[in-house]
Structure formats: structure tokens, C-alpha cells
Design a protein that fits this description.
It is a single chain. By secondary structure, the chain is an alpha/beta fold. It has a single domain, classed as NAD(P)-binding Rossmann-like Domain (Rossmann fold, 3-Layer(aba) Sandwich). The protein is built from three helices and three strands. The protein has a three-stranded parallel beta sheet. The longest helix has 10 residues. The radius of gyration is 11 Å and the shape is globular.
């Protein structure tokens, strides 16, 4: 299992996130973006994925 953190989910980010989330053997663990509204949309679609506005939380996460 590959655990993945994504920093920045701009215009194409939701599409990339959807593709990774649908892949077998990939666990999208956390997503970071400075736009809290975008994170709310992601959380609605992928409630199992943790979200943050702080990129340090992704970089320092021991899960990866």
C-alpha cells in the first residue's frame, strides 16, 4: 500500500485526486490547499481523506 499526501489541488487537483483515490494499492491520506472552500468540496466527496491548509502537516506526517 502506498500512502499519499497531496499539496495543492488547484484547477486539475480534484481530477488527479479522483484518479489516485480510485487506484488499487493507493491510500490518499491527506490533502493540503490554501483554499478552505476547495478543501470543503474535497471533504464532501472524499470524507475519509484528511484535509489541511498547512503544508507542514503533510510534509511532517509520519504516515508517508
Amino acid at each position: 500500500m502506498i500512502s499519499l499526501g497531496i499539496i495543492g489541488v488547484g484547477r486539475w487537483g480534484p481530477n488527479i485526486l479522483r484518479n489516485f483515490a480510485s487506484m488499487e494499492g493507493i491510500d490518499v491520506h491527506m490533502v493540503c490547499d490554501t483554499d478552505s472552500n476547495r478543501l470543503l468540496q474535497i471533504k464532501k466527496r472524499f470524507p475519509q481523506i484528511k484535509t489541511t491548509t498547512n503544508p507542514s502537516e503533510v510534509v511532517e506526517n509520519k504516515k508517508f
